[in-house]
């Protein structure tokens, strides 16, 4: 099965503002309404973070990596610390955009409270792609210290992830989602 590639105009953009913030939060909180996944052109995979044990990463299966990605997504949003998340998502433009938005929220004195997502099922596709069915918990967030609290309901989401082997383990190079 091949992965559909969009035209350049369908790529994720790093535009600032509420729409981008909400889209980024929805990507990880499981509430977007995009019926078709959109993948950027593949990029060259980068090596894993030097702080990670190369032995651990090399022994990790794609399924274990995907579950770790889900945990790091939760940690990043709840703490504002993007370092570990970015270390495993090098080359993933939607991932970078999400991390940038989360950093912006915390820099403005805002916060995110998210119970995370549960990975329910993983299906291996071809070319390093995986379908991942998740259930996301609700999210509460404030864009800044003075902003009112917003809520996202969570729900069931199917992600499509593309992994690449960096030589020391896997990195996530592309990500798309659609609600179930």
If you had to describe this structure to a student in words, what would you say it looks like?
31% of the residues lie in helices and 27% in strands. It contains 5 helices and 7 strands; from the N terminus they run αααααβββββββ. It has helices at residues 18-29, 54-59, 62-79, 83-87, 93-107; strands spanning 111-114, 117-124, 129-136, 139-142, 150-152, 155-165, 170-179. Helix 1 packs across helix 5. Mean pLDDT is 78; it is low at 1-24 and 29-55.
Provide a concise account of the structure shown:
The protein has 180 residues and is α+β, with helices and mostly antiparallel strands. Helix content is 31%, strand content 27%.
- Spatially, the strands of the biggest sheet line up as 2-3-6-7
Question: Biggest β-sheet, characterized?
Answer: 4 strands, antiparallel
Runs in which pLDDT lies below 50 for 5 or more consecutive residues are 1-24, 29-55
CATH topology, anyone? Nuclear Transport Factor 2, Chain: A
First-last Cα distance: 20 Å
When the domains are counted, the total is 1
CATH class: Alpha Beta
**What gyration radius follows from the Cα positions, in whole Å?**
15 Å
């Amino acid at each position: 099965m091949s992965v559909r590639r969009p035209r350049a105009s369908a790529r994720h953009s790093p535009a600032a503002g509420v729409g981008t913030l909400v889209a980024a939060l929805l990507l990880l909180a499981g509430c977007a309404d995009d019926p078709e996944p959109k993948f950027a052109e593949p990029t060259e995979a980068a090596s894993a973070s030097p702080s990670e044990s190369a032995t651990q990463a090399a022994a990790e299966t794609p399924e274990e990596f995907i579950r770790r990605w889900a945990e790091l997504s939760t940690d990043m949003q709840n703490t504002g610390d993007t370092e570990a998340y970015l270390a495993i998502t090098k080359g993933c433009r939607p991932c970078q955009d999400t991390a940038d938005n989360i950093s912006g929220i915390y820099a403005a004195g805002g916060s995110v409270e998210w119970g995370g997502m549960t990975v329910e099922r993983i299906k291996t596709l071809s070319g390093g792609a995986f379908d991942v069915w998740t259930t996301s918990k609700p999210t509460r967030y404030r864009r800044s210290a003075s902003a009112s609290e917003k809520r996202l309901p969570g729900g069931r989401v199917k992600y499509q992830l593309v992994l690449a082997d960096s030589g020391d383990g896997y990195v996530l190079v592309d990500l798309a989602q659609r609600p179930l």
